[in-house]
Amino acid sequence: MSDEITVEVFNHLVTLAALELDKTQATYLRHELNQQLKAIHELEAIPLEVDMPITAHGVPYPLERSPQLRADEWRPFSNPDEILAQAPEVADHLIVVPDIPHEKLD
Q: Among 40, 51, 59, 78, which lies 20 to 30 A Cα-Cα from 22?
């Protein structure tokens, strides 16, 4: 993998994401993405033991100390109109999401 996102690759990603960026925004965003990529490469270079357990926050959290997961059950919201009132567009009590133009890729 390259150590830098080139202008060509960045422009391709901008096109795929259907973003409209001016030159200043594009330069800034590409720089920020490259900084993040650099940080990822630095993290990858840290030597880790093969048998190191995976943790979400850097400290051991064994299963016997983990709280039991709650049941995944649907609970209706008491006032859905409150949420719908915040949406830019609503039709038939559903939030309208704008269509995103798609291109068929070869």
A: 40
Residues of the chain with pLDDT under 70: 1-2, 55-57
pTM of the full structure = 0.50
d(CA 104, CA 106): 7
- In 3D space, the residue among 10, 1, 5, 8 whose CA is nearest the CA of residue 35 turns out to be 5
User: Following DSSP, what letter does each residue of 41-63 receive, concatenated?
Assistant: HHHHTS---TTPPP-SSSS---G
1-13 confidence digits (pLDDT tens): 568 999 999 999 9
**Where do the structural domains in the chain lie, given as residue ranges?**
1-48
Cα separation of 11 and 6, whole Å?
A: 8
Rounded Cα distance, 89 and 72, in Å: 30
Amino acid of residue 45 = A
